[in-house]
């Protein structure tokens, strides 16, 4: 058969070549339908330093789920892909590769080195796109961008010049974070503070012209080479007699003043503080207040410079050892006290960051931050999911410092500023006319260009660009909480400044992926997981299912191979169900399905189980869509899983065998049609999460055409709703389950027929479905009535709408049965307590939707009826 599925789901076979077929069919491009509502996403650009990691796989999976669903719902969808040049990281990677051949970047010069970086970019961009293909992400490659594209470079230059002309970009000498390995400035948020073992070194400075000494404590003794003062608090009686005098720095013998400043804390340490303005942010502020000189004692690579005397040329940490040894020999090292303290490390290279006075370019953040804060009170506010991350965003914007944007690199957007020998500076989008101008050698922070990503990729600064007019602002951004400061915040304030609009309507924040023990994945721990290895074993669909169902928005998730096994098993379950349906309904046409569904809806054909499953399908489609709209993919997945595995596969499919193994061909045709329709709708609901195997099965359905990528997403069809059928089959399932449980408790296999009595107000309905009861419970005789004599020695169960009795004389122990029923009574009492507590909560009753409150009241009535029935049955058994 052409529509036959293989006996076992094989992800490698199903996914091979599928992505290329989608690209060839151009199904990922916007529809171009002017009447459709636009929905756009720009992919968080991965940097071109290597392979995708699980965090990026999470980003792309969630975004692909969103865009695939919106595409199926008829939106004019654009998902724009691209990559980031990642200045520091990429330059470091290329330099390391060259170093393997004994080549330094300086040996090549700027232009030839950049040629090597472009080669790297092309190599790794190709790898990333291949990995995107394996993930199945449905982007429009005809619009792919890179942060160093000419169009994006034009946007960067325009933004820089406009901010400079407003006075919001300036060049100045300030204390910044310095990465001695990458030899570049870093912004505050590129510094990771790690707790490490260190020490407080207690050193004495001699008072000039006397035998008196003062004691200071520092964790960085090498910085005394740049000291320009010591300070005490003016209220500190211990040192009032020393104010105005000088101390002599040991070894280098420089004389520096003793000053008063509130920065000196009388209660902390000795109360005497050394001031090294060029290498400490607090000391820098003190120096500004007292107009102190600022001595930089360190080279770009972290070695001591000419201001370090005999230590010149030593690495900073080697200099520390030598200085400590020399101070000890002089008798001016008083003590070394171990301390555990936080030290800044470079986010990119991992080395200890050095606070260092340097001339850099900065963005003044006060006005930009004010605009972003004010916008969050308007209709254009960015909606964060979960909402608590709005507070994270606001707190950062309220406490933001000026942003150092220059980097001492070659790879990146070269700063559009030029200098001449006359000391003049020119800032412009293009080079100045005339001879003698040299462009600033620095490049801009990578995040400066990434901050423009949502609108620069759409054609800005050309505001008449078709994509900019149609798809900006973008609809949703998905990213991890670890880059709210790096990227999300910067996109918001730059977009507001240059387009007057927020860059996106929604920001969905997810957490971090951790290992099974809850640890953050890292190279040092060796616990990283390559998503491509996972796909190789389980397939992309299984990985995507895990990533979408792993946690709630904003929460971390633990990777687990057990969960991957469960995902694969779920897909295999659907595969087997589909195979069974296709084998039994290979020739059913679309017209036949439509006609059969109309008859079932009109109750002119079909049975109660058909009407039940269509009602449940409606409810599932409604609830899944609601949860997807709230980005609660885990909840949506849970709803889908329960419907597919329990209601559709375990119950409806089994119930249909009563018809499929029967003689009524007309009834079989109806059942085949319903099976095909439900399978079709299940595949569509699942497709955004698991695109590959759903397309594989969808194209084999006998009544479909085209790709599921652009198939219509399921909608609620009111004509299929049948509350009576839903309640009736729910009672039937509960009853069958109760019989199975009782049989299991008394070790009575299903193969052994036993008598069964059912007392119910719904006796007519239960008699109508008695063939199902007989098939699944195997009664030797079945009695169903509204009123009947209750046997004395019988196992019993209470289900919604019915009481079940199995007279199993000789197989039951009355005392054990009473004990069992008392446990059941306790269970219903617990349920009653929970519902009563909820309904007794005035806030819940006042604020919840009317249908939610009514649902709780219905539960209360149901639980009370079961409680009363079980209680009465216990009393009967005790009397007998």
From TrEMBL:
GO terms under cellular component: cytosol
GO biological process: valyl-tRNA aminoacylation
SUPFAM superfamilies: Anticodon-binding domain of a subclass of class I aminoacyl-tRNA synthetases, Nucleotidylyl transferase, tRNA-binding arm, ValRS/IleRS/LeuRS editing domain
EC number: 6.1.1.9
Stored Gene3D superfamilies: HUPs, Isoleucyl-tRNA Synthetase, Domain 1, Valyl-tRNA synthetase, C-terminal domain
Every Aminoacyl-tRNA synthetase class Ia domain range: 18-430, 436-560
Stated name of the protein: Valine--tRNA ligase
Species this chain originates from: Lactococcus lactis subsp. lactis
